[in-house]
Amino acid sequence: MTAPVVLAGGAVLPTGADNCAIATRELPPGARVTLTDGSTVRVAHAVPEGHRFSVATVPPGAALTSWGLPFGYAVLPVAPGDYLATERMLDVLRARRSDLTWPAGPNFENRPLDPYVLESGPLAAVEQIAPVGSPGTFLGYDRGATAGTRNHIVILGTSAATGPFAEAVAARFAGAPLPDPVVAVAHTEGSDGRSSANLDLLVRTLTGFARHPNVGAVLIVDEPGSLLTAAALASYAADRGYPAPTAQVAALRRRGALHDDIDRAAATVTGWIPRIGAQRRTEIPLSRLNIALQCGGSDAFSGVSANPLAAAVGAEVIRHGGVAELAETDELTGAESYLLDRVRDAGTARQFLDTIAAFAARVRAHGHTTEGNVSGGNIMRGLYNITLKSLGAARKRDPRVRLDHVIDYAEPIPGPGYTFMNSPGNDLESVAGQVASGCNLIFFTTGNGSITNFPFVPTVKFVSTSRRYELLAAEMDVNAGQLLDGVPLAEATTSVFDLAVRVASGERTAGERAGHSQVSIWRAWRQGAPAAEPRGIALTARERPELDGVPLPITGAVARSDLRWSAVDGATDRIGLILPTSICSGQIALRIAGVLTERLGTDAVSRYVALPHTEGCGAITSSAEDLWGRIALGCLSHPSVGAALLLEHGCEITHNDFFRGRLRDAGLDVDRFGWASIQADGGIDAVTERVTEWFGPALGGLTPWTEQPAGLDRLRVGLHALGDVDDRSAAAYGAVAAAIGATGGTVVVSEPSPLWRSSVFCSRLGIDREPPATIAHAQVATPGLQVMETPGASWMETATGLAASGSELIAVHVADAAVAGHRLVPVLQTAAGAVADVDVVPLADGEELLRALLDVASRRRTPIVSGEGLTGFQVTRGLLGVSI
To answer: Taking every pair of C-alpha atoms in the chain, what is the biggest distance, in angstroms?
Structure first.
């Protein structure tokens, strides 16, 4: 095992042969660091914590090295003590750290990464790390060839449409008498009604979840017309020779009223509880332990402390006959030589390189490169480029361990040893694939202090520095910073290996004690020629910016002044909003919304809303960031929002500073909003207190709750349809749109909505069928009839765009079954006939539909599904967004 070289004065060398050191604290100009030979170097400029400076003379053109490998090349003579910077680094640092003086210009450059070429000729045979003499055991659940470290009952939604239902069923069993709680697996995929680029991947992932050894029983929930069903998962497993499931498996198809379906699901789960609760752990060989090696929120020390420590413990698991599995394909670009210096054979090496090349090609097809993985936040934390980030990430393979297997995302682990699984660098999406492949314990390394956890597989979190560990001790399991403090790697490895065995045997991790978890599966990506895409989602070089917003003329409609509704400060509601800036703060935002309801009540606002989603980190393209930024600003400035706070995780691309800039660019006062950070504020409990402390005075500053009568000119409504629309319903929707639009209100209809294919709907408005978009997706709409550009077919993404456009309520026509409502705005659902949980069967004149909308706007009526809490929120990545 190799350990970092700690230097007196505040620095560390990843290996003794490196010509660059990493500052372990912020070094002021003139600070001196003692090298291993007793000599000292004096830093010329301030060096932030985690950033590098030279400890040797490096001539122009020569390589700068960390872990003994090059990450950049000098463009000027570099002297010992010189701070190392590229032009992009200096741009980022000058914008974010104006308190320090920076070098006048760069002294090294990044070079384009050529594809790694495997040397010709046979690879020398390499043995795996030597096994232990007497393999150990842990206490687990015997599943035959596999073993569970936990024994959960899982409610598995097959698509995004069934996710809220799965969560509602699991919520019924909070506090059930079980060693491990009933959990839901809710995700965002498979709900747009058509085949997608990731459909096979999605089926494979869900099949792996359903047959995971940590699952004692699973209820698979689907719905009529879904591409993904319980039967499809069973067929997939049978066709590919999966072993018979050891869990108790049942399927439920949504078919009736929400309450009835939840009761049916709950009856199944209730019947399982006695048997699952009676199962006991037995002694299991450690050869059945499969460790997922994962990282997120990395910093310059992740590759020096946290990753090598996790790798060393993983090596011990392999010595006992188990599995360690690496992932995150794009975060190994530039580190191929390290990964392949110990590999089983040439075929495995070529398979690894082919996987890297295919991933890079997919990213290029979306107009980007894997170098785009490195964000401004990475640079701030000392990860200057993809090579440096990858070299650190690759240290999750212990140098004594060989690479044995290469598998695709969510494919079953083929055997013992060290496996690489293809996945994006988005850590939650990557973790889902590792779990589906059979990993029953997760090692998650982090620099900033990512708090991620998975619902039914325990996560052991390693943080890279002692300072971060002390800040986030309640969220972290292992202080890998002890290596930087001088603790020998062998000693730390022994201690953490013992912890891993205890966790596998049932000891709760920090994440399990916190009761926090989330799931995100590798999200779908666009592919194919523009002509192959349906209307409204043609593949373009870039999604359009905001459009001119000129509404469509409505001819022949008569303004209505006879209808009134009850507004609150001119809006339909007053909400306290917590907006997570990225995927990883979403579940904590939900938790805090519940705390605010308990502590602050609902005198000043009607409710507290959190909007968890999957974006803000781990997806590239500036257009995807622009879309998320526009959606976020539309929600923050929504008429129904009385007070809003942004909650960052702390290491994402779209962090709080990102949104401060976007708000300023939009002319909004940043001081009007609250700001909090899970990582910087000290973890879940600390950030909950901070948010509560902000909302108290913010709510106290609102005007007293008063209601005033308002007309249709103050109404803002979104309209949509799912599936075919009968003429009577189309006429009703057209009449409603005409009445509100002609009176001066705002009506937003999604561009690909089936309403536009109805001549009856269009004739009520006096316009041609299928008009062009007048506003971009989520662009705030001005009064009149607006057509919103919509880059996908997902209902929830469409609803989010309508809400962000300023729509205060949505009416959606459904063909077969009610759909989930939206977290921010109420969704009134209609159908042509008797469909469970719909609110209105409209007549052609639209009068009862319009009056129902006014009742919802006045808070006299709550839509059925929204009232049951079956709601969601999801952000589109647009046409070019792809996970990385």
So the answer is: 89
